[in-house]
Design goal:
Length: 394
């Protein structure tokens, strides 16, 4: 099974995400649960976009002297209704007087007593923001459901103190292995410190999930059963380690006893081949390899895609982009897709990618220099400098 087939199988499952109302000020990075219908036009009335004098456009070129009736500051009601030879002083944001449809900017005027005189004007630039220029009553906001600083500003302009958002998907990460040490513990021979849970947590929180890391499970079936039971409060469970075919790989060996219904058993990829995707009750479970880079790459390929789907993204395939190879890649024939750690950069108008020579799935030194994954399809021949390849941001 390849990555595309595994994603199709994953997306056949039902993902129920509830919604909640939160304050707009706390909504950055969240996802709207439904399109928002505008309940009033913005602006709600015609306003001036410049400081100057509001006049009738039809008077321009016919009349040079206008009687100043008064002024309308921004935020004040306009009590004026002007005639062809009259004007009202206005400011940026001022409500336009009745019958006025043009603002002569103050730089193009001069005043004497209660009269305004024209120096110049441009009929193509009325300097008026018409009612509903920004949003019209009844219009919906649906093209941008992800709440960033730009959408927050737009929603605030609509007086939305609270918004309805999709609840953050809940994720539990369960590291396993007798050789794994908790951060801050004393070093031991033949042991390694738990690293990938923190990377995966950061990756998934950046995508909008709520992530917890469980205590390290030793290679003991009872401990794993207990950890899975505790993690059932989460919609997504991730185990790290225990999925190969060794004597201590208990998750694969005892998946039935653990209540894991397997949907995908192994994927023809490098790194990450032993991955299991399944269900525990109504929860999705990803049983990932213990090698840190393997688990991080698998999280980027599958769990990020799932979280984006749960938060409303319509794409059901990985989003790739193109780049030119900056060096040759010698490839031995393989049935596995290879997701190589690489660095992509722009030179002139072209996008290039440089794969790293070392691709061992334990190397953090390569991981920290990578900003993309370069995809080598299964059965692919060697690739040469200048060829166009697919990459995924990483």
């Amino acid at each position: 099974m390849n990555v595309s087939s595994a994603l199709k199988e994953l997306f056949k499952q039902n993902f129920l995400c509830s919604v909640e109302n939160i304050y707009l000020k706390d909504s950055i990075g969240r996802t709207l649960s439904k399109p928002i219908t505008i309940n009033k036009s913005i602006p709600a009335f015609d306003t001036s976009s410049m400081d100057g004098f509001a006049v009738k456009k039809s008077s321009l070129g016919k009349i040079n002297r206008f009687a100043i009736l008064g002024e309308t500051p921004a935020g004040a009601r306009s009590e004026y209704s002007i005639k062809p030879s009259e004007c009202v002083r206005v400011y940026t944001g001022s409500r336009m007087p009745k019958n006025a449809d043009f603002v002569v900017i103050q730089e193009n005027t001069w005043t004497e007593g209660n009269f305004m005189y024209l120096n110049a004007f441009d009929k193509k630039s009325p300097n008026v923001r018409k009612k509903g220029l920004d949003f019209k009553k009844g219009q919906t906001i649906s093209h941008s459901m992800f709440i960033d600083y730009k959408l927050i500003s737009a929603l605030a302009s609509l007086n939305l103190e609270k918004v309805s958002v999709i609840k953050k998907p809940r994720v539990s990460i369960i590291p396993t292995g007798n050789e794994v040490l908790a951060l801050g513990s004393k070093a031991k021979k033949n042991s390694i410190y738990s690293s990938s849970p923190y990377s995966i947590k950061s990756l998934l929180e950046n995508e909008g999930a709520e992530v917890t890391i469980s205590p390290i499970c030793r290679d003991n079936l009872d401990d794993i059963v207990c950890a899975l039971e505790t993690a059932k409060q989460s919609q997504i469970i991730i185990t790290l380690g225990g999925v190969s075919k060794g004597n201590y790989d208990l998750i694969r060996k005892y998946h039935n006893k653990l209540g894991i219904k397997i949907l995908v058993d192994g994927i023809d990829i490098r790194p990450g081949k032993p991955i299991i995707i399944g269900k525990v009750g109504s929860n999705i479970i990803f049983c990932l390899p213990g090698n840190p880079i393997s688990s991080i790459v698998c999280s980027r390929l599958f769990i990020v895609a799932l979280i984006r789907k749960m938060l409303g993204e319509k794409h059901e395939k990985l989003i790739n982009r193109k780049a030119l190879l900056s060096k040759d890649i010698k490839v031995s024939f393989s049935q596995r897709e290879h997701y190589m750690r690489a660095f992509t950069y722009q030179k002139g108008t072209a996008q290039y990618v440089k794969p790293f020579s070392q691709q061992d799935s334990s190397l953090h030194s390569v991981l920290i220099k990578s900003n993309c994954l370069l995809i080598i399809p299964s059965g692919s021949p060697s690739k040469y400098k200048g060829e166009i390849v697919d990459i995924i941001d990483f």
